[in-house]
């Protein structure tokens, strides 16, 4: 059966209409709403062909058609037009990312998940970097005031954490530089698992006379590094699914929320690729995800992927808008993370 330009236009119209309304689409609707230059009867015949070819499907004998996973795949690959991000959307993205906690990568990723869930009205999931697989690149102690020092930790994965150390005496700039050099000599290029008792005892010897700093610094160091590991998947906007009529059934909505709350399942559908990927329905190889679509892209420091951002929703999501917003946020995020790597 020939797949000609007319069939493509009709399929395009069906998918656009169904994404917008969530209602099965009939030939009269297409003839009335879209200027395709053919009669309702011709459209009905073409729709029958499209159904036979597997691009659309009919839920009930008397109802209109909805796109199949195969139809959505053709739409994403060949038919959809790029979404133009509005000035308001871009301003919202930039303001939200600028307001994220400085040098706190895990908090920035939480902000990213909030931004994308709000703009797409879908669920955003973020796989965060693994600290235990990262090496310490540098530790910097920075004076804040007489009783406080800021400890900034940077790993080779671009993870940046900070913590405030309380001290009972002022530290001058020369001594602070000496402390920084001592710490980096002992800790640079070690993983969190490599910071063993021998390393800690050597640091304690180096900091002889500064027991107050040592006693505050070691727990703060472990707190910083363990905190990110404990939140390896961030989820935002689970209840956005209730906006979609097909999830008005409470059991179906519960199934979705249960799925996105399962961190191990979510990690399986988040590929670590720098290109944007779209997995539609049955293309998701785990059974729990076969009613949903996942748009995902890795975020990076330079060429090194750190984690993955994913948007999960029904197969009738607005793919063009979701892809454009995910790409915009990821590109801005990558730029910020690369700037962090200059530390």
What is the top-level CATH class of the largest domain?
Answer: Alpha Beta
The appropriate CATH architecture of the largest domain is 2-Layer Sandwich
Order of helices and strands: HHHEEHHHEEEEHHHEHHEEEH
Strands, total number: 10
Find the structural class using helix and strand composition: alpha+beta
Proportion in β-strands = 15-25%
- What is the typical, i.e. mean, pLDDT? 85
What form results from the Cα inertia axes?
A: elongated
Low-confidence stretches: none
Strand order of the largest sheet: 7-3-10-9-8
Distance between the termini: 60 Å
CATH names the topology of the largest domain as Beta-Lactamase
| Count of the domains | 3
Q: Helix tally?
A: 12
Which key terms come to mind for this protein?
3 domains, three-stranded antiparallel beta sheet, five-stranded antiparallel beta sheet, single chain, 12 helices, alpha+beta, Beta-Lactamase, Arc Repressor Mutant, subunit A, 343 residues
Characterise this structure.
This protein has helices at 5-21, 27-33, 40-52, 69-79, 87-98, 105-120, 173-187, 197-206, 211-229, 250-260, 263-268, 319-340, and strands spanning 56-58, 65-67, 123-127, 136-145, 148-155, 160-166, 233-236, 277-280, 292-301, 304-314. It has 343 residues and is an alpha+beta fold. The chain has three domains: 5-79, Orthogonal Bundle (Arc Repressor Mutant, subunit A); 87-128 and 231-340, GAF domain (Beta-Lactamase, 2-Layer Sandwich); 136-229. The strands form three sheets. It has a five-stranded antiparallel β-sheet with strand order 7-3-10-9-8. A three-stranded antiparallel β-sheet has the order 4-5-6. It has a two-stranded antiparallel ribbon with strand order 1-2. Helix 2 packs across helix 3 and helix 7 (173-187) packs antiparallel against helix 8 (197-206). The radius of gyration is 26 Å and the shape is elongated.
